[in-house]
Amino acid sequence: MLTKINHIGIAVKSLEASLPFYRDNLGMVFLGSEEVAEQKVTVAMLQIGESKIELLEPTSEESPVAKFIEKSGPGIHHLAYEVENIEASIAKLLAEGARMIDEKPRSGAHGTRIAFVHPKSSGGVLTELCQPGH
Ligand code: CMX
Hints:
alpha+beta, binds carboxymethyldethia coenzyme *A, 8-stranded mixed sheet, 8 strands, 2,3-Dihydroxybiphenyl 1,2-Dioxygenase, domain 1, globular, single chain
């Protein structure tokens, strides 16, 4: 069902303040930034091998990322696994009793289709399924 780790999401207060460390100090390739209005975040993507780091800045106090930062501070927010068929992956998890935040795919960054599994079903790790848009 899973093909690889697509990205690790990191909650930040400010992309402008956080991006230089990843791009310049760690030397990751900056792929661009994009607002994902549906998720109330602006994301910056950086390539690291075959996976990516996704920096997430909230665009509203109602953003799940704003709530996360308020409660836990900036840091690792979620782990995203790449899947080939997101509908089939959601159906399998639901059939096996997992608690899905999204029972239907939503729009993610860079044309992806995404669905979150609730951290209560995944050992405290907010888990994303991610199907590339190509
Ligand atoms: N990782 C692990 N646990 C988390 C978490 C996270 N990122 N965010 C919240 N939780 C935990 C909380 O600590 C809390 O645990 P306890 O009950 O033990 O205290 C529990 O989940 C409920 O959290 P809450 O603060 O009451 O927050 P909400 O219920 O309002 O929302 C969640 C939590 C995960 C359902 C919500 O953040 C959500 O729907 N997330 C999915 C969407 C998302 O995160 N989008 C941003 C990224 C978009 C992108 O990558 O494009």
